[in-house]
Queue: 2 jobs
Job 1
Amino acid sequence: MRRRTGRAVHRPSAVGLLAVLLLAACSTIKSGVVFPPPSTTPLQAKLKIESDQRTLRTVAGQLENTRYEFIALHQRGDWTEHGYFVTEENNQIERFYFRFVVGHTTLWDIINSYGGSRDAQLG
């Protein structure tokens, strides 16, 4: 991080590398919480499936909005003119990452609630 005119700035390459490393690390980590317990009634199972469908629609919309906003930030390209991210751009990238992690964790929780992924069962 460099200091310029009293404001914190970040080199795009360093921030980009950090984002890629964090995303790669998070893509292999899943939550350990498993719901519901194995003994559920058909009605409980139906209600859970409906709830999970609503959650999936919500998360999908939030992740898609995050994607569009990230593309818009890239297309504005203010950071390419400066050679660094200004504080507002850095904060926006942090919000993108936070929303991604929340969505990613929610999706893993849903996967785990149905018994996990096939890869997790094999490993």
Note: Residues 38 and 67 are 36 Å apart (CA to CA).
Job 2
Amino acid sequence: MDMFEEIYEVKKDLPKFSTLINKVKSHKFNSFQYITIFIGVVCFLAGIILGNVFPACDTAASFYTDVCVNTEFNILLMILVWFFSFIVCLFLYGIGEIIRLLNEFGPKK
């Protein structure tokens, strides 16, 4: 048996989109996780806005001047905002997941 035959035997089909949506709908989020998801969306949009508000200088008028002839979208700033907001939101979502698990397995009243 060669490698490709083994791959065809072992591989599974990708789940359908409706199956993924049903799995996400069945997951119960707490308010901390909803807030984290909202903050993630806001930070995503903020990265795009900050990339436009603080553009990068494409070409300068001369070597020792602060005058930019052409400005371009600051993709580095956008990626930095996205990266740090992803890390912060991942941390906050993890705290929300810990809270959800503690509530789920905590003492029943």
Note: The chain has a mean pLDDT of 84.
